[in-house]
From TrEMBL, chain A:
Keywords: ATP-binding, Nucleotide-binding, Transport. InterPro entries: AAA+_ATPase, ABC_transporter-like_ATP-bd, ABC_transporter-like_CS, ABC_transporter_ATP-binding, P-loop_NTPase. The keyword Transport applies. PROSITE patterns: ABC_TRANSPORTER_1, ABC_TRANSPORTER_2. GO terms for molecular function: ATP binding; ATP hydrolysis activity. The keyword Ion transport does not apply. Residues 5-234 form the ABC transporter domain. This is ABC transporter ATP-binding protein.
Automatic annotation (TrEMBL), chain B:
Residues 22-251 form the ABC transmembrane type-2 domain. Belongs to the ABC-2 integral membrane protein family. PANTHER family: INNER MEMBRANE TRANSPORT PERMEASE YADH-RELATED, TRANSPORT PERMEASE PROTEIN. It is found in: Cell inner membrane; Membrane. It comes from Sphingobium psychrophilum. This is Transport permease protein.
Amino acid sequence: MASIIEIKGLTKRYASGFEALKGVDLTIAEGEIFALLGPNGAGKTTMISIVCGIARATGGSVSVAGHDIVRDYRGARTAIGLVPQELSTDQFERVIDTVNFSRGLFGKPRNDAHIEKVLRDLSLWDKRHAKILELSGGMKRRVMIAKALSHEPRVLFLDEPTAGVDVELRRDMWKLIGELRQTGVTIILTTHYIEEAEEMADRVGVINKGELMLVEDKTALMKKLGKKTLTVVLAEPIDAVPADLAEWGVTLGGEGHELDYIFDTQAERTGVSSLLRKLGDLGIGYKDLNTRQSSLEDIFVSLVHQEKAA
Amino acid sequence: MSLQNLRAIASIYAFELHRFRRTLLTGLLVPVITTSLYFVVFGGAIGSRMTEVDGIPYAAFIVPGLIMMAMFTESIFNASFGIYMPKFTGTIYELLSAPVSATETIIAYVGAAATKSLIVGSIIFLTAHLFVDVPVAHPFAMAGFMILIAVSFCLFGFILGIWAQSFEQLQVIPLLLIMPMTFLGGAFYSVKMLAEPWQTITLFNPIVYLISGFRWTFFGKGDVAIGLSLLFVMGILAVCIGVIGWMFRTGYRLKK
């Protein structure tokens, strides 16, 4: 797939000396959903701000849809729609006016049909004549998305799109993002909700302290770094983990009814069959087995902790 | 300039004027009431004791000064507020991420603010006619001077709006600098009426040259030569354009 964003050696150093980005390299393919994960202050918003023209890079280069963001900023910015983290709206404006304004600001001719479609897709059509201050937080977030989509961007940046919205709206937002992808829009989202990335992203990038720690296909990442937990539901409860099971590092749970064994799915020998054989040798009967794949959140936490330890 | 650029300028311009329409009543009534009060106080109370200044009836003499005073205030307020509010509410992100150049941004914001300022100036001019007969010796020069003043002070206001980091800072320059300089700049009197050394000291106030120049377009005479007045206006314009250019080049208080 052709790339739509190319970031090379991107650095950002503030006057205070703080390095928000330390030479980030990243390529985003056209049409993909890319989730950028990272703790607070990792550099996610700084990176998005530079690509969108809100902040200046100290070094490196960025091109969007083949246009350098500095030398050919018009071409680059025309291709971008941005939904920032903060709910920043003109409170006294009507929904339809502010969305039309955004389209005009990006130099696009008036297109009532497109604006109507965007507002309908976001369930804002009935509220089009309402002043923004009359809307709920979730609706305001939708207005910001409508503004970003008003000029038909090829790339949409969503900086914490579901921060502070209720579960139902979050689900709606995920659905909308899925639909947008169907239209060929490339979506880059930053989020604290790992489940959001897990639900939607094609690829995941983890950034911490201004460094991109990894970029990986989500499924491959989960396979590569993911651990599985085998839970052995015992026929009879036990008081303690037998010493003979020490080499597997199993833990006792479920008030003595369950043994949990964490194993690496990519390892040559997972240790599952040997553990089950050992249980048989020890005369420990079991009535059920189940496994659970570790979530993206587990992977993320583990990566950040590894970094901290280093 | 491409059609895309023109559309962006038109959008910002229309948006800013729309904001003005929301407060149309106060935006128009306030200058009318203020002007009327000035006429009651200065034209009626003081004017009855001081019938002529430099051969011009006092009530008519203060009209150019009143218009200038209102236009200085309106221009600075409208332009500074226009760019400060998006900074304050955070909506500036949209402007910064739009494919719009610094020149286009300035044309749109300053154009809209100057339009509002010119509307207010014209209303005061019309209101003054209700109280006194005001001749205009050079109508085209008067219109041109009004436009130059509106644009110059809107540019100044725009700089102020970018510089300000609080509402207090936004108001400190107009209230503590521009307003006193206008009162001391010959809005209500001729500099020639002052005794030395005040007359010489007053000539260090740039507002004197602006009011004098505008007064010349009405009565064909001013405190200083019209050429000097024009030089000052063009000087202010050039300095403001230079400062704004620098602000956008460096991203001063606009971009992190």
